[in-house]
Amino acid sequence: MNNKTLLQIVKDFGNPIYIYDADTIASQYKRLTKAFGKVKQLRVNYAVKALSNISILKLFNSLGSGLDTVSIQEVRLGLKAGFKPEDIIYTPNGVSLEEIEAVTKLGVQINIDNLSILEQFGTKHPNVPVCIRINPHVMAGGNTNISVGHIDSKFGISIHQIPLLLRIVENTKMNINGIHMHTGSDILDIDVFLYASEILFETAKNFKDLEFIDFGSGFKVPYRAGDIETNIEELGQKLSKRFNEFCTEYGRDLTLAFEPGKFLVSEAGLFLAKVNAVKQTTSTVFAQIDSGFNHLIRPMLYGSQHEIINISNPKGRERFYSVVGYICETDTFANNRRINEINEGDILCFKNAGAYCYSMASNYNSRYRPAEVLIYKSKPQLIRKRETFEDILNNQVEITI
């Protein structure tokens, strides 16, 4: 997407705005499937929580992807987008047994990570196939908020509780057809991932009727030029070889499953916002934009870095700016960042805005959430309207005071 195209999209659809490129999404999907091309049965389940617009889900359906969901609402979105129930896995955490039972009626694959819920569900529904989420106690991920496989994590059933897990399965006679793990996001060390995989293989030996093993995801993408990323090709070569060996040991071919989100959509997304004001203080030059962490919370929540470029003045001399938003508290996108000279009215482009950006947006300060555009077959198409004041009031109920 060149600057001229982006500026035209802003002109046509307004700002701030999220823009996604379908070709980039398709390229990342094909890159992942190619990396694991030596596995007989591969399943890529796109993590809906990364970017849940129904048009994006329909795109993944057309690519042959499955879906990884964490709520009944995401399951329903997937079904609405045309996915078959058998192509959706539901991996909640801390939800009620009632929600799990409601999802079961929709026919999707259930994944349970709690011994209490497992026993209750198995007692009531012993014939429903269930996947079990294991906590391998392996620390992985670029931030404590997104590292979910360590010993203090709320996610998964501890490997140290396997004897109790097996007792529950034996007592309920429930059908365990898959096992799963997810260690965290922004994984760089392939050896750590492979180590955790060995724990999962060892656990799998306890179950005789498995159909698949789900290795989660968490692959790191580059956030700026020269940034390091997960070597997906190396991981594909090493894990595929080990997985095929395990299938031989197990006695039949299983499906290798992944649930990538960020890897598939992060680099496909851009976020564009206009500079409202340039403010010089005694020590800092602030570029104040028409957005805030209500639209893109990751820098404030995770300390994540998004490369920011001035597409209105790409050849201007570089200066140092702190890019901040309009939310009425600390609201910083970047500190002391080198950016081509910024003037009021310029459009700034945030890269890697496809994953966990719009999906975490809010109406904080009663601000509207932005529009979304998908560039599909070289044509920009609006896939979500910009909110209006009526949307803010939509579900509020005024009482007489």
From TrEMBL:
Pathway: Amino-acid biosynthesis; L-lysine biosynthesis via DAP pathway; L-lysine from DL-2,6-diaminopimelate: step 1/1
Domain Orn/DAP/Arg decarboxylase 2 C-terminal, residue spans: 20-354
Cofactor(s) required, per the database record: pyridoxal 5'-phosphate
EC number: 4.1.1.20
Role, per record: Specifically catalyzes the decarboxylation of meso-diaminopimelate (meso-DAP) to L-lysine.
Binding partners and assembly: Homodimer.
Name of the protein: Diaminopimelate decarboxylase
Species of origin: Winogradskyella flava
Record gene name: lysA
